[in-house]
Amino acid sequence: MSVSSSLDPTRIPRHVAIIMDGNGRWAQQRHQPRLFGHKAGVASVQEVVEVARKIGVEVLTLYAFSSENWKRPASEVAGLMSFLKSYLQTELTKMLRNEIRLTCIGDQDRLPPEVQEVLQKAVMTTASNSKLTLNLALSYGSRSELTRAMKKLAVSCVSGELLPQDITEEMVSASLDTADLVDPDLLIRTGGEARLSNFLLWQASYSEIYFTETMWPDFRKEAFLQAIADFQQRERRFGKTREQLLDTKQN
Fold first, then answer.
1. Which of these is catalytic: 8, 23, 69, 183?
2. Inter-residue contact 60 to 51 (CB < 8 Å)
């Protein structure tokens, strides 16, 4: 029996977030430059996006370029920006055909102007699509995002529109880049590392986390479906006891 046929269609995570790690090490294992691995990783993006759409995932967030990635060698950053621009241009027709909406979180102003132009066009062109939201985290860092959110709320307090004691968790969430998205149910990290790397720290508070040794260029359909299957075996309690969950189900 294939993994896909054994999945429970009623328990598909609404939002899956992925830290796509391992491109550089995958390339080095093959005695190739790091950009070789990043290029190979594009095929994994294409396949995972297609599978997520087919099984009914509502939101797929991909950690494509972190705020810390700007510290990498200029040649690697330039190559990554080139791959991003090419991906957005070549995939736009497919996104329209498959009803995929593109959104973006992060400090987009730091992206090269030509990438910003292509990105904004893709976001605007796909805005009415509703089958899957593909959310790219670009020049993104969760601490920076949270800092920007605190500044927004601080401005409201200084202006008198809001009292500090009236700030709620809902207000913080509404001030984040992901304000119009549900929080991730499942967070996947490929490449064998077991850390969050400044990714969706607020939003992933109750996410199920799945770590895999598989490098991102090798993370394809079956690997993604295996992560979904693992998620469906988890018991999500959100602070409650197992007995409370059983009582809720019975009632």
1. 69
2. no
Q: Identify which has the larger pLDDT, 179 or 243.
A: 179
Torsion angle (degrees, nearest 10) of CA 145, 129, 42, 49 = 100
Task: Please name each of the domains of the chain with its CATH number.
Answer: 9-140+183-234 (3.40.1180.10)
- Answering whether pTM is above 0.90, one says yes
Catalytic residue among 21, 135, 177, 185: 21
Put residue 52 in one of left, alpha, beta given phi > 0 → left and psi -120 to 50 → alpha. Answer: alpha
CA separation, residue 182 to residues 14, 59, 188 (Å)? 8, 8, 16
Please indicate whether residue 21 is annotated as part of the active site: yes
Residue 135 annotated as catalytic = no
pLDDT at position 152 over 70: yes
User: What are the pLDDT digits (tens) for 124-136?
Assistant: 999 999 999 999 9
User: The tokens of 193 are what?
Assistant: 């590392």
